Amino acid sequence: MSPNGSQARREEILRLATTTGLASVEELSRHFGVTASTIRRDLARLTADGRLARTYGGAMALNAHPEASLRQRTTEAYAQKRAIARWAAAQVQPGETVLLDAGSTVGALAHELRTARDLTVATTGLTALHELADVESVHVECLGGTLRPLSQAFVGPLTEAALERMTFDRVFLSADGVTADGGICEADLRQTRLKELMARRAARTYVLAHAAKLGRAPFHAWATLPQGWTLVTDSSATDADVAAFTERGIRVVLAEPVGEPAPLQEG
Amino acid sequence: MSPNGSQARREEILRLATTTGLASVEELSRHFGVTASTIRRDLARLTADGRLARTYGGAMALNAHPEASLRQRTTEAYAQKRAIARWAAAQVQPGETVLLDAGSTVGALAHELRTARDLTVATTGLTALHELADVESVHVECLGGTLRPLSQAFVGPLTEAALERMTFDRVFLSADGVTADGGICEADLRQTRLKELMARRAARTYVLAHAAKLGRAPFHAWATLPQGWTLVTDSSATDADVAAFTERGIRVVLAEPVGEPAPLQEG
DNA sequence: AGACTCTTGCGCATAACGCGCAGTCATGCG
DNA sequence: CGCATGACTGCGCGTTATGCGCAAGAGTCT
């Protein structure tokens, strides 16, 4: 808080509100050690500037793609997915061109890449597209195709045709389920075929799947996991799960869900 | 309110809140002819269900793609754009395949098409994509391409390549400016070329532009307006403006911003 | 008919709100 | 240096919205 105390506090309020999705006057008051009046004044000002929306006991973020929207946060395995996304984002080097699949975990990765610079991101998912739509420092290519409403993913001939026109340094795939035997499990054969095509166009392939997805086979369309691919999961994966993959020449990474423990509990 | 009065009222409250973006307890109370207590109870219940967010004097919608988000509503010329969108949506017949450009007015059209059935929508704009992403009754194709951050539009080789694989019953184009002499004015030559290609693939071409855009030339990339195209604008266009277009064989439609006069002022 | 549920309207205590006033601190000017 | 100015904060006030309990009405099932 070096330059301007109140200004910095307002920015921090905004950050907290967008991170948490919701922030109460009382929490903020305690967090900054100022009276509720001051917080209220800040909120009034931020609201007048159209930067957040006032609620009864506090304020909420109004934009839908903040650091972690309320909706996202309520998603299951949020911490794990975020840990995986952070590890994956750290792999991406400046100047690279990467391909992002659809899915919530890869969407979280897209969010992490918002701060990247000198990066080209191509994607087959609406989530990633939306996460990066307003980021000027990232060049975004959409592969297009038929939109699957449930998974928010693009599939089909248009997608495959677009894929033939590009190659990538890294591709990050999602999965509905992953087993060491079968590989990636999806609901739809078009999706599995697309994943195979995507991997074929990239120098390095990563599969992002939190531990609960390991060993699961909720559907019946499969794409095999070749040697050399990297499976990124979280640290709650069992040793047996991990061993099954490593024995087959799959590199397994366990992302640790550290980071910020709880964003807004006392200061 | 035939089946269940309170249930229906809550749904209506939700609709009003999402339409208006914001609804006050007092307004709602007057609108339904019930006490503020009842409204408060309704709001508490809807909030508990996570369907809207409570504010001090009322409630606000929390999702970003409702009938008309707060953001949209604050957009200039909202009523005009909506009137244009409604007229355009009424042209679309069941079973057709239509192409939607980027832009806020066309985005409003996409919103109107949410209730359509047996319809295929292809688009070069992220706005339309997002409007229709969760609608199961509409088949959505994204043409893909490079995402222009400012206009949320796809342009470039991928988009053009995808266009070559489809034709359309109707295409709805947007414009940064429209003049009778020059035609459609845009910031970028890639955009104007794309619009020409789009029109070439469609049986009928509509240009959606509210009256304030007529005669304006904010940039310097142009696409001519051939005879047979339809320019859809709002009723605030001057006779001179309209005449300039009709003299050149352009059909001009003036959409009347009627519908709901003011969604929530007394009932 | 009687009991039950759901809902509504009303009154009241409480909490959050906006506003005005005074005090503090940093900055700028004569 | 002295003083005025402006931004910010804390405090107390009256106002307003809120939540809860209670009683009454409408509809349903036994």
TrEMBL record, chains A, B:
UniProt KW Transcription keyword: yes
GO molecular function: DNA binding
Organism: Streptomyces heliomycini
Protein name: DeoR/GlpR family DNA-binding transcription regulator
Keywords, alphabetical: DNA-binding, Transcription, Transcription regulation
Domain HTH deoR-type: 6-61
